[in-house]
Design brief:
This protein has 5 helices and 7 strands. The chain is α/β, with parallel strands linked by helices. The protein has a single domain, classed as Phosphoglycerate mutase-like (Rossmann fold). The longest helix has 15 residues. 31% of the residues are buried.
């Protein structure tokens, strides 16, 4: 007799925060930066697209303001905060212009950002491990559909986790501000 394997899938809707109000080229990772004055115009578009996916069994958000504000605007002021879905920690490089960072390790990081952490920060592999841990835990929950308000790097990690992107193609597929992607795990 053939035994049936439980193949229950969970749909995860990942929403990237809206545009940030920092100078172009600024390395802002885990810094709690302000949003552009266009927040409401961007958020209403995101909300309209998000409404096609509802309802959700659970909603999570990064603990940074740019994600919490969008989650709240979209009707989820009580979204669960989870630090595993924070953006990459750029350590000493936070809030500096990438072209003006004088750290001698910067070139080493550019050559191998997957494995080389930013000075006093983390590498992409370290961020991926955090996001994978979050997604592994989600798989143990009884949810069918979950929303996650997060960051561009987190959305890339989730797509790699779901097998939708290869690591080497990751940064050619950055979801735009206010963008939404769907994965299944």
């Amino acid at each position: 007799m053939t035994q049936l394997i439980d193949s229950k899938k969970m749909e995860i809707i990942l929403i990237r925060h809206t545009s940030v109000d920092v100078l172009p080229g600024t390395c802002y990772g885990q810094t709690d930066v302000p949003l552009k004055p266009t927040f409401e115009q961007e958020a209403v578009v995101t909300l309209g697209r998000l409404n096609t996916y509802t309802p959700f069994d659970q909603v999570y958000t990064s603990p940074l303001y740019r994600c919490i504000r969008l989650a709240t605007y979209c009707g989820y002021p009580d979204a669960k905060h989870d630090s595993r879905i924070l953006e990459l920690n750029f350590g000493d490089w936070e809030m500096q212009n990438f072209n003006e960072i004088k750290d001698p390790r910067m070139q080493e990081w550019f050559n191998d950002y997957l494995n080389v952490p930013a000075t006093n920060g983390e590498s992409f592999s370290m961020q991926y491990k955090r996001v994978a841990d979050f997604l592994d835990e989600l798989k143990t929950k009884p949810y069918q559909k979950v929303a996650v308000f997060a960051h561009g790097g987190v959305l890339i990690c989730a797509q790699i986790y779901a097998g939708l992107l290869k690591v080497e193609d990751a940064f050619t597929s950055l979801t735009p501000y206010g963008g939404i992607i769907s994965i299944e795990i």
